[in-house]
Amino acid sequence: MSPSKPKASKLPKNLTKRHTLAEQDAFAESAFDAVARLYCDVFAFWRECKHKTCKRQRRCLGGNPIRCLQYGLYDVPFRRLKPAMAGVIAGGPRRLPPERHAEWTIRRLPLQDWLGSSPSSRPLAQAIRKVGK
Q: Lesser CB count within 10 Å: N end or C end of the chain?
């Protein structure tokens, strides 16, 4: 018996494995939103949320989780931030794994480093752009 050749794929090959800048920014924004949702879930901000879906599902499902987190942090004592960070690193109450390496990186940052800045001027945006694949 002669060895058979593997059939050539008819699909076009994508030899460029890098993402465009717009895709990298979208990945970074989704990572920031996911981590903000985890913080909202750890602090249980869904109890006072104005969105009915958040109360019904008992987790953050609102449109802008970063705004919800900024609004709710005024009532959180400083001593609860470190245990909350450990809970976020673990994946929140539902123990969700990070979707991308960028989210893994942001979970390990102190909350004050990335929360106060706007999405376009975040100091981490370029670092996440390099890492977020």
A: N
